[in-house]
Amino acid sequence: MSAPNKSYDPVEVEALKPEEIDRARDAALAAIAAAGDLEALREVKAAHAGDRSPLALANREIGALPPHAKAEAGRRVGQARGAVGQALKRRQEELEAERDERVLVEEAVDVTLPFDRVPAGARHPLTTLSERIEDVFVAMGYEVAEGPEAEAEWFNFDALNIAPDHPARTMQDTFFVQGPGESGGSGGSGEGESGVVLRTHTSPVQIRSLLERKPPVYVICPGRVYRTDELDATHTPVFHQVELLAVDEGLTMADLKGTLDHMVRSLFGEDLRTRLRPSYFPFTEPSAEMDMVCFACRGESVGNPDRPCRTCSSEGWIELGGCGMVNPRVLTACGVDPERYSGFAFGFGIERMLMFRHNVEDMRDMVEGDVRFTRPFGMEI
Ligand SMILES: [Zn+2]
Questions:
Q1: Contact in structure between 130 and 379 (CB atoms under 8 Å)
Q2: What residues are neighbours of ligand 1 (ion), with CB under 5 Å?
Q3: Can you give the pLDDT at residue 171?
Q4: What distance in angstroms lies between residue 263's CA and the mean position of ligand 1's atoms?
Q5: Model pLDDT, residue 7
Q6: According to the model, what pLDDT value does residue 112 have?
Q7: Whole-model pTM?
Q8: Which stretches of the chain drop beneath a pLDDT of 50?
Q9: Could you tell me the distance, in angstroms and rounded to a whole number, from the CA of residue 293 to the centre of ligand 1?
């Protein structure tokens, strides 16, 4: 396609010949179209639109032309450079779009892939179960109350009608932090002559709640308690309780029973019942043990050797904890008039409930902190 006319015109510069400009333009356009990625396009741009490119060099020659030739050469070179510039811009946009699309695909995160490099933690099931129980009662208008774990003996025993000679006060059950009559000194916070113990139950929080509030009082007291037990499959020296206290005018055992039924249905299933068996606690009168129908077999394993139930040992009932009407002496000790007010209370161990609710067989699993134990509970909300 080169021009056959080789005649030399002194005013005509080789680089400005129309066919040279067309050739330079076409070469540039072909290279631009062939550039496969942004890196290649950058090289094409330097070669065909840079300072040393044929069109840029041709442009420089225009200045040396006689005036009458300048306009024509300028228009020609300008059009060629414009065409190259536009082609570069278009190709740049195309390649950028392709790159963005490729990055979206290549760097996409598949959230369904199994994750095993950073295992997620899980909340301890004792915490989640405890909070579920709290939620049931908060929804009924109860208030969550807390108290110190190093507790004055008076709150832990005396105020709950547990006399000084009660077996629960011996060293066998109780961790003493400071004996009775020892000086309050540095760390202790004894109540007068009362000693300090690691609380053996959450009941002292009930006493504190009664002293701090005017009836009606509706509180739920979850927390850690301590007994001098060895750690084994069914005992641990530190465990968790939830206790509940309601003091109001006209409360009866029927209110207690209805509250228990509601809790059991909320935690274990709609059609479950509870029953009360006579018992004795110093701080309630009358007192009862509370049982619930086994949520696993619904009582159908009783007298049915073909369908034994591990959860209730085929007894049909599961023992939950103790309860009763608050002993009037406890109300009096807290400055509440037992002639006007009555109350009910119940309490149970969270570990025990976790054991039968989730078939946990060894209490040590709950305290050893092995994430292989807690992780399966992590999904519970
Ligand atoms: Zn059962």
A1: no
A2: 294, 296-297, 301, 309, 311-312
A3: 63
A4: 19
A5: 42
A6: 83
A7: 0.62
A8: 1-8, 10, 184-191, 381
A9: 8
- Smallest Cα–Cα separation from 243: which of 199, 278, 212? 199
Q: Within 13 Å of residue 169, how many CA atoms lie on the same side as its CB?
A: 20
Asked whether the CA dihedral 328, 331, 335, 337 is positive or negative, the reply is negative
* Measured distance CA(60)–CA(57) in Å, rounded: 5
CA angle (100 as vertex; 99, 102 as ends), nearest 5: 65
Provide CB contacts within 8 A for 175, sequence distance 6+: 197, 198, 226, 227, 228, 237
pLDDT of residue 3: 46
- CA 304 – ligand 1 centroid, Å: 11
Give residue 353 CA to ligand 1 midpoint distance, Å: 14
The beta strands (E) that lie in the chain are given as 143-144, 150-152, 176-178, 196-198, 217-226, 238-248, 274-281, 284-293, 317-326, 342-349
SS3 369: coil
d(CA 356, ligand 1 centre) in Å: 10
How many whole angstroms from 318 Cα to the centroid of ligand 1? 8
Tokens of 44: 């094409």
Q: What is the pLDDT of residue 89?
A: 94
Collapsing DSSP to helix, strand or coil, 226 comes out as: strand
Residue 367: per-residue pLDDT: 85
Give the position of tokens 């030739």.
69
User: From the CA of 300, how far away is ligand 1's center (Å)?
Assistant: 7
CA distance 9 to 216: 115
Residues 156-199: tens digit of each pLDDT: 888 888 888 877 677 668 888 887 766 544 444 444 567 898 99
Residue 285 labeled ligand binder: yes
Q: Where do we find the tokens 């916070």?
A: 189
3-state secondary structure of 129: helix
Sign of torsion over alpha carbons 328, 333, 337, 340: negative
